[in-house]
Design brief:
147 residues; mainly beta; OB fold (Dihydrolipoamide Acetyltransferase, E2P); two-stranded antiparallel ribbon; 2 helices; 9 strands
């Protein structure tokens, strides 16, 4: 007797498997997914803080002058004044987003953004919010690319 060929596989009629459970929500929630190409547009660099002072028109801001390796000092305004003393930043290396469009914040131009992590969103009421600056673990020259 000749064998009959098996029928071609058909799509399963079983309900689709439930998606994997999402990780527990982080403070502030997750942001939308971006493509690698979009992420690659960010120019993350090491910068050394050469000067840090209180912003003259904002209680929460520090005005930082940083060496980003370009040979031209860069000013960044950062909302970290309640977490970090200005004098403690001078001489420290930090990570910045160097290619953000300039923005005027309370009359002062900010040309970039310093990267920091926190354990609660900025607008979370009550409780203590901690902040940690993103910085290289050991000495690396200003202007070094972060990837």
């Amino acid at each position: 007797m000749a064998e009959t060929p098996s029928p071609a596989p058909t799509p399963s009629t079983a309900p689709p498997t439930a998606p994997a459970a999402a990780p527990a929500a982080l403070p502030g929630g997750f942001k939308p997914v971006v493509s690698f190409e979009e992420f690659a547009k960010l120019d993350l660099r090491v910068a050394k803080v050469v000067e840090a002072v209180a912003h003259p028109s904002a209680d929460r801001l520090l005005k930082l002058k940083v060496d980003d390796g370009s040979g031209v000092p860069r000013q960044i305004c950062a909302g970290i004044r309640e977490y970090v003393k200005a004098e403690d930043l001078v001489g420290k290396s930090i990570v910045i987003a160097a290619n953000l469009a300039p923005r005027t914040i309370r009359g002062e131009e900010s040309r970039g953004m310093l990267l920091a992590a926190s354990d609660a969103p900025k607008d979370a009421g009550g409780g203590e919010r901690r902040l940690a600056l993103i910085a290289p673990e050991w000495g690396i020259a200003p202007g070094s690319v972060v990837s």
